């Protein structure tokens, strides 16, 4: 393998040399003046190729090592097959009669792969600009004759809204709610061999008050972006098998459920509950072998137990495992292990899966604060809220995108992410486990309870149980938000029943329900949001934004700024957020910390503007506040695969609009600043920032744009500002910036966080195009239209061209199902173009799809782009007027609700 990699590298190098030789050929033109004219023309108006490799690191991170499938990891040589069912669908946006029937003609439908959103959204999809209504998906597939005696299950991670699923014209399952997985046994409805099966899915994201969240999108702080927007799996097992939690009728049942009863130093007591089904007509003596392994596959402990399981019945094995020499999970040292589960019948292994598991204990210790693994966690829980939507694709974010979000927020300094306001994708929680980010899980809800329909309450209880079953094995989750967010009108008995249902599903220590203090007391919850009880732990669920808003209708605030608004706005946002951080760091131990609203910009249903107060914009590009937060991490905290440790960052772009004061964010003891190699000064952190662990360093009256004339008039010159971070007299970090000259070229970068691009037809990576000068310095004041093109097995998601903001623009590049080299080019009039080469890798998980059906679908691939309504004449004028009035009233109602929540937060119980 090493020789193969070396040969590939040498082959790539040879190709690079050949490219350079080819591009160095000069055609000599006899007349010198014509040569000069031709050269100038090429330089300014043609694309000059610049080649960049995708990654500078030796290896890319493999997605299959990071993400579970249907809640577990596969075991090599296991009879169980967990198959990718995302590829080869056909899609139609709208209502269609009879689309569930096998013989329905879908030849004109669009070909898509999952995860899939209903449309390509614009830069602003807030205020109800997205489609709401019915959408249909269809797919043909074959089941091998060898699977005739297998049990077959279809598993959906998430379909927005209400959905129905048919196979071969027979309805097999319906589901209400857009954020939790569901599954169905399809063994008796599929055909085997060379016979086609047809699956049809109706996905309807229209408003419906009968299930949570229940509120109309026009009155909601997030959006119901539709589609089959999470992964789908086809699961094949033997007749004796480990069950799926979603299909279990046993409380706290289904699948493998692991809980740490106690953990200290390198020892732990673990409870493992495993549910096995015998679907045969005769009893089966079944042996369960449970092994605790580290990530290298080394066995730490193993137990086994046998039981005769009656025909057509399930049995739950309850095992206690005491293990020594195990590495415990901790936010700053997130060690993970595997629980391997093997099922044996008559000496033959009939099923096996792995559950990734962080062994840790959690205790909310009242006035003493949070304890992890028997020790006080002496850091404040400081983090941010997160919605799942992403620019252009809505909720249809691939696993790699979920992982990158968590990684970026962890590198910003978040040791906790509060989910808003629903359970996240499994890949999100997988990433939190991996990076040591504490987090929450939440029932879907916001400002709404349906008193008129008993189904709503019934479905709340069902959601609560399914929520715990989905996320119970994730060590990163320390709080369970079972009550509906910001819904003071929800009845006390309902909240109490949800609290009890959650504890029924997780009957072990270290499980804590949480909601706002007034509701928590009514519902008997374990801990509080925004609490003031000296003996009950509490957490501030949202902070850093609401107090800065002018009013809840306009919603203008210095904390809500776009990157395009420039340095002053970004610095003002950071300065205001620093006050929030100062308050959080000053809290007593009983108050655990708080989460900024919010970590990433997001779309909203009720307001025409996106929420702009994030640490990152919707493209996941950091703002100044991101680096302010990052600088609060102790330089001693160093986490594997996370950019951590000592840091220093200049927050000044050195333009004609830049401040004379140069702000520097750092977690070092002092900072030394140079201008053109000469020391200007050494500063200690500012003293007026309260409890902030690492206040900014401010070098006042240091940059004067007009003084640059004396350096070089009418010619290019170099002006560099460099800073060094110093701890105990040693330079441990540095950062430099150059004065920007005139724009000359584009520069491309792949913002993949070193995660491989998988050729599964839906994975994508952001490609950043920067407008730069001859030195490669980004021109933040530029606003250029940039066009991207692609060659190879991939496509560009967002419409072209795109306009740069603060010197950068993003193209989302999606993989095909064929792996290979993808070349991305960027052009802009008058600037040198650029190109970058990346490689998509083959899928590791086997996929099920009909190639003929897929090839026909490819002919119909098109871009469903949201169009801005410029006056739809087909809509009745009066109806449009009334709809606009309704939307206006919804905004007013939400404004009043927000005011109410703000007033309630100031009331002391």
What descriptors fit this protein?
Immunoglobulin-like, 6 domains, 11 helices, coiled coil, disordered N terminus, hydrolase, 8-stranded parallel β-sheet, Jelly Rolls, Glyco_hydro_2, alpha+beta
Report what the structure shows.
One of its GO terms (biological process) is carbohydrate metabolic process. This is DUF4982 domain-containing protein. The protein has about 900 residues and is an alpha+beta fold. The longest helix is centred in the C-terminal third of the chain and has 30 residues, at about 875-905. It folds into 6 domains: about 1-45, no CATH class; about 45-60 and about 740-860, Immunoglobulin-like, CATH 2.60.40; about 80-125 and about 130-235, Jelly Rolls; about 250-355, Immunoglobulin-like (Sandwich), CATH 2.60.40; about 375-630, Glycosidases (TIM Barrel, Alpha-Beta Barrel), CATH 3.20.20; about 880-909. An 8-stranded parallel sheet has the order 28-27-26-25-32-31-30-29. A 6-stranded antiparallel sheet has the order 4-3-5-10-7-8, with helices on one face. The protein has 11 helices and 48 strands. The radius of gyration is 28 Å and the shape is globular.
Compact summary:
Residues 128-236 form the Glycosyl hydrolases family 2 sugar binding domain. The chain has 909 residues and is α+β, with helices and mostly antiparallel strands.
């Amino acid at each position: 393998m090493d020789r193969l990699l070396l040969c590939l590298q040498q082959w790539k190098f040879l190709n690079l040399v050949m490219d350079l030789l080819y591009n160095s050929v000069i055609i000599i033109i006899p007349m010198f003046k014509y040569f000069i004219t031709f050269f100038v023309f090429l330089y300014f108006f043609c694309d000059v190729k610049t080649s960049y490799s995708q990654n500078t690191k030796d290896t890319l991170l493999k997605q299959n090592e990071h993400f579970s499938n249907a809640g577990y990891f596969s075991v090599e040589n296991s009879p169980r097959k967990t198959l990718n069912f995302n590829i080869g669908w056909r899609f139609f946006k709208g209502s269609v009669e009879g689309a569930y029937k096998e013989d329905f003609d879908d030849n004109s439908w669009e070909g898509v792969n999952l995860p899939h959103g209903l449309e390509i959204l614009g830069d602003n999809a807030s205020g109800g600009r997205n489609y709401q209504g019915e959408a249909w998906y269809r797919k043909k597939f074959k089941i091998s004759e060898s699977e005739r005696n297998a049990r077959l299950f279809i598993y959906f991670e998430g379909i927005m809204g209400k959905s129905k699923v048919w196979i071969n014209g027979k309805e097999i399952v319906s589901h209400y709610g857009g954020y939790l997985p569901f599954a169905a046994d399809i063994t008796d409805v599929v055909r085997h061999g060379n016979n086609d099966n047809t699956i049809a899915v109706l996905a309807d994201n229209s408003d419906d008050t009968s299930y949570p969240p229940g509120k109309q999108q026009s009155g909601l702080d997030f959006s119901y972006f539709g589609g089959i927007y999470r992964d789908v799996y086809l699961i094949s097992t033997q007749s004796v098998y480990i069950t799926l939690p979603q299909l279990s009728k046993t409380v706290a049942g289904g699948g493998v459920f692991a809980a740490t009863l106690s953990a200290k130093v390198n020892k732990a007591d673990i409870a493992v509950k495993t549910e096995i089904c015998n679907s045969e007509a005769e009893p089966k003596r079944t042996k369960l072998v449970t092994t605790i392994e580290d990530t290298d596959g080394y066995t730490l402990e193993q137990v086994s137990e046998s039981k005769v399981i009656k025909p057509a019945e399930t049995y739950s094995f309850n095992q206690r495992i005491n293990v020594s020499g195990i590495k415990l999970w901790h936010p700053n040292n997130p060690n993970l292990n595997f629980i391997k589960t093997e099922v044996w019948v008559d000496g033959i292994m009939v099923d096996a899966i792995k559950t990734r598991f962080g062994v840790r204990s959690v205790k909310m210790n009242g006035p003493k604060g949070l304890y992890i693994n028997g020790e006080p966690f002496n850091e404040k829980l400081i983090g941010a809220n997160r919605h799942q939507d992403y620019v252009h694709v809505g909720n249809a974010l691939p696993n790699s995108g979920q992982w990158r979000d968590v990684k970026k927020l962890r590198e910003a300094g978040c040791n906790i992410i509060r989910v808003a306001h629903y359970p996240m994708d499994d890949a999100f929680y997988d990433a939190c486990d991996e990076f040591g980010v504490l987090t929450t899980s939440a029932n879907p809800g916001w400002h709404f309870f349906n008193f008129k329909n008993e189904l709503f309450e019934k479905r709340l209880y069902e959601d609560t149980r399914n929520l715990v079953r989905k996320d119970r094995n994730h060590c990163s989750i320390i709080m369970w938000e079972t009550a509906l967010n910001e819904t003071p009108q929800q009845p006390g008995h309902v909240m109490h029943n949800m609290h009890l249902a959650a504890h029924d599903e997780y009957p072990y220590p270290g499980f804590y329900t949480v909601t706002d203090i007034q509701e928590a007391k009514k519902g008997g919850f374990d801990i509080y949001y925004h609490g003031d009880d000296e003996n009950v732990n509490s957490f501030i669920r949202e902070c850093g934004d609401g107090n800065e808003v002018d009013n809840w209708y306009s919603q203008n605030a210095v904390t809500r700024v776009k990157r395009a608004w420039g340095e002053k706005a970004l610095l003002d946002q950071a300065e205001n957020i620093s006050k929030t951080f100062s308050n959080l760091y000053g809290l007593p131990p009983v108050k655990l910390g708080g989460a900024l609203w919010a970590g990433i910009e997001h779309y909203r249903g009720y307001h025409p503007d996106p929420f702009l107060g994030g640490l990152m914009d919707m493209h996941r590009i950091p703002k100044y506040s991101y680096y302010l937060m990052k600088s609060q991490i102790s330089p001693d905290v160093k986490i594997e695969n996370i950019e951590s440790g000592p840091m220093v960052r200049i927050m000044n772009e050195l333009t004609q609009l830049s401040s004379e004061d140069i702000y520097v964010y750092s977690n070092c003891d002092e900072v030394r600043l140079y201008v053109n190699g000469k020391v200007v000064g050494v500063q200690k952190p500012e003293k007026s920032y309260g409890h902030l662990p690492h206040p900014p360093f401010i070098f006042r009256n240091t940059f004067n744009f007009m003084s640059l004339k004396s350096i070089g008039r009418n010619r290019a010159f170099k002006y560099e500002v460099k800073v060094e971070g110093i701890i105990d007299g040693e330079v441990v970090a540095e950062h430099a910036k150059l004065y920007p000259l005139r724009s000359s070229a584009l520069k491309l970068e792949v913002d993949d966080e070193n995660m491989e691009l998988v050729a599964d037809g839906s994975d994508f990576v952001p490609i950043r195009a920067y407008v730069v000068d001859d030195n490669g310095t980004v021109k933040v004041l530029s606003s250029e239209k940039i066009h991207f093109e692609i060659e190879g097995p991939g496509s560009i998601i967002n419409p072209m061209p795109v306009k740069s903001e603060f010197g950068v623009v993003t193209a989302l590049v999606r993989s095909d199902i064929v792996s290979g080299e993808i070349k991305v080019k960027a052009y802009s009039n008058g600037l040198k173009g650029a190109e970058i080469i990346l490689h998509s890798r083959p899928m590791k998980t086997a996929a099920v799809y009909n190639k003929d059906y897929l090839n026909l679908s490819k002919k119909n691939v098109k871009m469903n782009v949201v169009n801005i309504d410029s006056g739809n004449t087909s809509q009745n004028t009066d109806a449009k007027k009334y709809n606009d009035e309704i939307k206006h009233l919804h905004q007013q109602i939400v404004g009043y609700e927000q005011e109410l929540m703000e007033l309630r937060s100031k009331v002391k119980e």
